[in-house]
Amino acid sequence: MLRLFLDSADIDEIRTVYSLITLDGVTTNPSILAESRNKYGSPVLALKVISRFVSDHGGTLHVQPVGTSYQAILEDAHFLLDELGGNTWIKIPVTEDGLAAISTLSREGVHVTAASVFTFSQGMLAYKAGAECVSVYCNRAQDNGIDYTSVISSIKNAFPEKMLLAASFKNTAQAEIASYSGADSLTLKAKVLFSDLKTDLMKKTVDSFKMSWLDAYKKDRIKPE
Ligand code: G3P
User: Which residues, 6 or more positions from 211, have their beta carbon under 8 angstroms from its beta carbon?
Assistant: First the structure.
């Protein structure tokens, strides 16, 4: 069964979505964490609140260090794990330094999500370095002329037992294609996740039913006045 994550660092938004659907966890990145800075002041406080909520709901939280050098990634990762607990998944972009950090942290037993994956070889290297999850960034790939469907399917074909988390979507069609290509997990922002519920087609369809009733019974409810 497909695993679904919410890409958010806004606890109010997270609570709202969890009240509507079952989620497998939350993913964040420095950009979306920075966006919610006004709510908490401290990013670590925000992450602590989110971590506790997600853990209480049986999910996992994926958090990305800000540092980009090997040493800085490790320092940020260890700080995050100390503050948020060992169940936190650390998201690391698959750069040269990132791969080395993935290797070190994986050997320490840390759950690692290899992030910003745009090619088969990045995914292959990340898994071989010990990452438990590889995250292909679909819309960013597409914006740069990369066919993310073939990246997903080739990685999944070579590593069928591993978690592949497709991320970075500007619409639900991209998410559908990512799933169809083999992604076993998706993470979407709330505005994309629920976008199909408020299309013009939905409004037209729902209104047409009401209009039929209005025509026949001159009211817009079945329930008697
Ligand atoms: O979790 C990764 C995701 O946040 C990247 O998405 O929309 O910034 O490309 P986006």
Answer: none
